[in-house]
Every structure is written in C-alpha cells, then in structure tokens.
Amino acid sequence: MPPAVGLVFDSSNSMWRQIDGENKVSMLRSALAASFQSYDGKLDMALLTFGQQEEEACDAVKTVVPVETLKAAKFSAAVQQEIPGKGATPLALAIDTAAEAIQASTRPASLVVISDGLDTCRADPCAAAAQAKAKAPALTIHVIAFDSRSRDQLAGLSCMASETGGKYFAAANRAELDAALADVMATAVTAMAPEMAATAKPPAGSEPAAAEKPSSAPVGETKPEAAESAPPTAAEAVARQMARAEPVITGTLRLSAALTADMAPLTSGLVWRIFPAKPDETGAFQVIQRSVGASPVFQLAKGDYIVHVAYGKAGATKEVSLAEGENTQTIVLNAGALRLSAERADGEPIPINLVNYAVYSSEQDQFGERKLILPAAEPGRAIRVNAGTYFIVSQYGDANAVVRAEVKVEAGKLSDAVVVHHAARVTLKLVNEAGGEAMADTSWSVLTPEGDVVTESVGAFPTHILAEGTYTVIANHGGAAYSRQIEIKAGGDGEFEIMTGEKN
Description:
- It is built from 9 helices and 29 strands.
- It is α/β, with parallel strands linked by helices.
- It has 4 domains: 4-199, Rossmann fold, CATH 3.40.50.410; 234-332, Immunoglobulin-like (Sandwich); 335-421, Carboxypeptidase-like, regulatory domain (Immunoglobulin-like); 424-499, Immunoglobulin-like, CATH 2.60.40.10.
- Strand 13 and strand 14 form a beta hairpin.
- Helix 1 runs antiparallel to helix 2, helix 1 packs parallel to helix 7 (174-192) and helix 3 (91-101) packs parallel to helix 4 (125-135).
- The longest helix is centred in the middle third of the chain and has 19 residues, at 174-192.
- The radius of gyration is 26 Å and the shape is flat.
- The N and C termini lie far apart (59 Å).
C-alpha cells in the first residue's frame, strides 16, 4: 500500500482563543490549506479531529475525511466546516483512531497531531504512542503544540514524538505554526517516500523550524546523546561486545528492587533495562536486554553493566560487575508515592474531570525552568516517584484558577497533597434587559484589570472558572461590543448578565 499521513487537529473550545488579535481556529485553517496545496495529489491522507462536540466526551474522535489521495480543495473545505465545540481532549484515543484510519500497520505512515492542550480524559498518550509504534514499527508521530501561554505545560505532549522517533514543536504564533507544519510534513513525506519530497514544495514564506528535541529518558537515567550516524541495533551491539570477549564466560544476574533499604522487595510494576558499562564506537549506549517483572533473571557475558529499573515515574541506576556463575543484586529505588486531590475554599471537593495537575522538579535550571515529570497526573491515584520535593501546578477549569505549591515525598511512604482553589464557577449572558433571553452568536473575552486576556469563548451561556479577583467582561455581538466589570469571590458561583446598554 502507498504511504499515508494521518492529520489530527484540535477542535476544542480553547481554539477560539486569540493570538496577536487572530483566533487560533482561523490560523490553523489557513496554515492547513497552504500545506494541503503543497502536497495536493502527492500522498494519501486521513483527516481527524476531536473536541468539536457540544458536550465534553472522551469517546469521540471524528474522522473528517477517510484515508484517500490528498485533494487540497476537499480537505481545506472539510477543515473549514469543523466548528470548535466544548468537547474533551482525548489524545490517546485520537492516536489509536488515527493509526487505524490510515492502516499504519500495513504501510509506511506518519501522524501529525496539532493540539493546544494535554489529554483531559485520564488516558496516557505517551503509552498510546508506544503501543501504536509496537503495532506499526514504521509509524512516526509528529506533534505541534499550538498555544502562546502554556509552553512549559504543553511540553508534556513531546512524549508522543519521542516514543516514535518523531519531531515536537511548540508554536506560539502563526509564523511558528507555518514553519512547524512545513517541517513535519516535509519530514513525513521524506521518511515515507523520498521521491514525493522532491516534488513537493513547502508553503510560501515558510521555512523549516528547529524542532524541540523531546526527552524519553526515564527518571534517574541520563539518556546518551544520539550519534550523527545511525547507531547499531541492540542485536548488533550485543554481537560486537560478544566478539570482543574471548572466550565468552557467562553469568546469571538475578535482580530485585525495593523502595527503601529496609523494606521488602517489590512484587510488581518494575521495568528493567541492561546497558553496557561503556558506549559503543558510535558513542551511544544500546539496550542489551530488557524485562518486565519483579525478579528478572538475565544471562550475560562476564563484565561490567549498567542496570536501570523504573517503577512508575521513579527510577534508579546501578553499575554492576558480573562474575561467572550466580550474581544477585537488589536496587534501592529510594522512592515513595504522591496522591493529589483538590478542593474549593469552602471545603467542597473538586470533581476530577475539572482539575488538571502537572508535576515538576523543585530544582530550577539557570534559566529558571523546572523539569516536567508528569504533565497530566491523575487525581486520587498514587504516583510513584523518587523521594524528594516536587513542584505542583493545579489548574481548576480552563481559565486562571491555578495553584502552585511544593510537596515533599518521603521514601517508602504515601504523601497526600490537597490543593485548595480560591475560585468560583461563573456563567455569562448577554441580554437586552435584566432576566432576559441570552443572545446567541456572542463572543466573549474576560480580561484582568491590566487588560490581559484570561479566557475567551463563543456562545450564549459560556461558563468559566475564575480565580478570586476583579475582571472586565467584554461581549461582542452583531458588530457591537458590550462590557461590564465583575468581582469574583471564592465559592461565589453565579450568573452575570451584561446589558446591551452597557456598550464600550
């Protein structure tokens, strides 16, 4: 079968937000139209979207155009017809659906995923990408994170690229979106069929962008630098090492891991990888063997090795000298667990579908940046991490109800962290008179006293969760703008009406 590209784009309500005075929906439509024109008739493509539903749903990924030869006019028209809705962001499901739509297991294939948010359906898109790659070894996933305000948090999307050998870009404006899209499409067609890349031209004014290199190294492991030339396969690396060792003397390595030195070994949830102690001639460390289980047994040539064990987001590395015969090693993870939950200032628990957590390291680099440990931590579930202090970012709703806090995790213990949000759920209405009927086709902007945009939406009854404070709400309807100042108190849920007489 001919190679194919599956293009998956975000149609959730947040795509109405503006960047430099233009909403992201309009930017994306124009960028895609230019890309479609460049590759018109030159490859097979399927077009999929998510988030376009009127109600939030985690089981809906829409195939807009099934896989077929790319026709620029048809695909551009299809994108124009997709109106962002209030749906969820089921990225993991989108990967599965798109890979199946283009029959990735039967042909060279690439997915291009464009999203302005993380998975909101408590699924793991990183694992979904890895599973898709296992089913379709020739599949590559490229990711474009499209938003100007959440660059650090959206870096969590990069795992989909790193798991499959793809590229990751963070686009904060139209120019960066054009450049990223030009780069990933050129990369996709070059990898699938070089002759297609030779005849296709990137959109006018677009230059290939510099991809942000995603990291796939587990906690506790420093990932070796990639060599410029293609590294040998794991089998080739083993063969070279065995060839250098004459005669070959083998030993048995039995492994186990414990949270602390005085605790019993763990009985499940462990992933093991064995590396040579020294890099090969390319400068890379190749995985020699791997295993999943509590007590793996490895047969290895006598010599020095690096053992890495992962337990959730916790990990530990140990150098081992393997002698002839039986060798037993227990690795201490020095790890515990973190469980997150959130409540409002009045003590009311916040439903898990309304709050998102990102877990960062507490340390900052020379640029003041923190390492992202987990982009979408599941509330109420124990997260396995190494002992230490972590920086938590909790977002309640889709606006500015954000709390940042440090939490400490002790080895061998479960640490519960409850985040308290001082915020309220508000509904906005544009009416002709008090208590009147809400006007449809209204676009909304909520601004800080300094004029910064907090959130934007479209509809008759938009609902947002806002942090305590004073805001200016602007409603645009029929070419006219109306505004009102509102005061938000913690727990003060309510409805705010803007009268058509309150013009700017």
